[in-house]
Amino acid sequence: MMDVLVMLEERPEHSTVLAHVNSVPSPLNSERPSRDVVTLYGDPTAELLALALAAAVEARREPTERSETIRHVALWPERGAVGDAAWRDEMTGGLVTRDLVIPSDVLSETAAHLLEECGPSIRRLVAGLSMPDWPEGTRRAISFTLTSSAVMVAGGARYDAFLDSYRSADGIGVDTEGD
Q1: Which of 52, 58, 83, 142 qualifies as a cystine partner to 73, CB 3.0-4.6 A?
Q2: What is the pTM (predicted TM-score) of this model?
């Protein structure tokens, strides 16, 4: 399950960035889940929101993912998502950082799965952000929860491929012909 806050901002001058995705870890001793903050720039579309959500989903797939990881990713046309992740090393307490690069084709595939799985919800969210009757000066922001099934379906093909390669590397054979 992913708790997401989607915000809409004016397009920054002299920048082609489409969106930013930032993670906010849950507070210590709290049952609240971590939250991803997605900021869309310019006119929102379901496809743009799906790409930004795909960046949030894919950034969480890092092998070193921890619940206290802070991520900052920018979504660029033609470049995909580029950013970094940071967390505290459990042994030393030192700050560990890792660059994140998520190619456009991976984002597009994940976004397509998200639109297939929860397209109506994404479209309603975009419609809500686009409504003209927001009070003057109000920040346009809507919270929602992306279910675990949508997140798993979005990355399912790569997960299956990963499991297959893992099984092959370890010599684990799975016979499915008799099923």
Answers
A1: 83
A2: 0.80
